[in-house]
Amino acid sequence: MCGIIGIISQTNVSERLLDGLKRLEYRGYDSAGIATLFDGHSIDRRRAEGKLENLIALVGRNPLEGTIGIGHTRWATHGHVTENNAHPMANTIVSVVHNGIIENFATLKEALQAKGCVFTSDTDTEVVMHLVSEAIKEGFSPLAAVQHTLTIVKGAFALAFIFSDHPDLLIAARKGSPLVLGITENELFVGSDAIALAPWVRTVCYLEEGDIAALTVKDGKSNVIILNESGATVQRPFRQTNITTDSISKGDYTHYMLKEIFEQPQTISDTVQSLISLEDTSFHAPLLAIPTTFDHIRIIACGTSFYAGYVAKYWFEKWAHIRTEVEIASEFRYRSPVFDGKTLNIFISQSGETIDTLSALLLVKSKNEPTIAIVNVPESSIAREADLVIQTMVGPEIGVASTKAFTAQLAILATLCLKFAKDKQTIAPDEWKHYFESLIHIPSVISELLRNDDVYQQLATHIYHVQHALYLGRGLNFPIALEGALKLKEISYIHAEGYPAGELKHGPIALIDHTMPVIVLAPDDEWFDKTLSNIQEILVRGAKVIVFTSKEGADKIAKQTKGIPCLGVVILPKTNSFTTPLLYTVPLQLLAYYTAYAKGTDVDQPRNLAKSVTVE
Ligand code: M6R
Questions:
Q1: What is the layout of strands, in order, in the sheet containing 239-240?
Q2: Domain 256-450 falls under CATH 3.20.20.70
Q3: Residue 563, pLDDT score
Q4: Is the CB–ligand 1 distance for residue 327 below 6 Å?
Q5: Which residues of the chain have pLDDT under 70?
Q6: 117 catalytic, yes or no?
Q7: Amino acid 177: pLDDT
Q8: The domain made up of 3-240 is a member of CATH 3.30.559.30
Q9: Is pTM beyond 0.85 here?
Q10: Does ligand 1 have an atom closer than 6 angstroms to the CB of 613?
């Protein structure tokens, strides 16, 4: 949510601010703005509602000068999506951009208004602007004013400030939301992530919780001072980033999402091979550091990551005989869960910044239970807090709808299942080897599937205009049905629900008529015959049925549903039931993608969605 960029240079920065914002678009936003110091003294800004194009056009018509500036993409929390509520907030003393929420803003606003401050927006951010400028008016230096303000505001946030009459000073602060500094000899940058800074820097420095950084460029020399929460000067490690503009380019694909779907054979393979040796099946660190003394497992996550956890429940219980609970983070943290000290807790998050998952992790830590994070961003807050981190090796995921991160999460959880099963000897060595080989082989099976993606384009022409769709699956593929429905909802705005096929008669069958597409996952596994009965039940009620199955499954379906054809029976390569969730995910991603494409929605940046959900 919200993206921050800041630059101090010796040349005009407005174009690069806009360029940086372009790379932050994927985070989700509904308005944008930039501010610079005009003539090195006065703050000037441009803001626009809607897509970045509007801001770019505005700056084109009315350019902004200045060698220091900040920029922002806003995902509205307090106040409607209007130009007035867009950041940067600015008065004649300071300009600020903000990601996160100031929780005590209402009380602070009242007090500031009583003092005579005039508010021009409905945002919580404006409180920060007034607190800082009031402190400066009282004689505080800009740095002291920011420090003072941060002792007053409560909440989780990232902030960047510029100050009138200080053409060489940019201040950034982190508490709860990530900020990274980009460092060169004669220019300095701040961004919500390293992707924003990719073309300009190789050396980056991640701020820690409570840090305030004063960035200056004087006489062509850059300097960074970082103060920790108690005000002491600290050194934070500088590291080299491998995020380049190439690694975040769309290549020849129409959308990032399609590119990321097609990257999956590689990303699954990279992820599995980061954890297990293909030669001797030995496990690599960090799997070796996982505690062995626990009675059961609790998996906590949100959205798509939750569905990855849900598949793992089936894996861990069936093959490793470990009782496993799966929890939606926003529910878990607000009920009164029971902690027995014998639970291994696994947190799954692509971004590593999801506020509910992070808060649930902090809660579990406070109860002294062991924690593992499965994340795609190793510098993220969740990664920093967990006892042990396992990284999905997929590179940046830019499409808001998660695809390659999900299958990499599944790959990690499947590998973990193999590890637990080996440690506990819950399956015979031959069976173990069979599952291990099928996991190693699954990337090439997915590559084979991806060679026939025109079938999904065809199917999409039949469903892109519908209002609703049902997804059915059983066993390991029930969570995949949930994930398929979420993908369709997110990017095509078609209302879709995932159900266990066995639940059909307990309610959802009432929805079935000739307008309802029903997408059924029916691998030829131990649940196939039961799912086939469900297919017959919905076919006779006139639904448009699309079935994903194997060759054997398709033959059985053809035999038993004579005379009532399905809209489509898509034959997927054969695999065993252990790896079906990885395989059956991909057609649902493609179906959602081509449906959204046919409908003409904004596939990579669907309305209202944010890539990392950093506020509740
Ligand atoms: O970054 P996280 O994995 O913690 O994000 C959790 C959800 O917000 C995320 O999976 C969301 O459901 C995606 N938009 C799914 O495509």
A1: 42-49, 31-38, 68-74, 3-8, 188-191, 180-183, 203-206, 239-240
A2: no
A3: 74
A4: no
A5: none
A6: no
A7: 87
A8: no
A9: yes
A10: yes
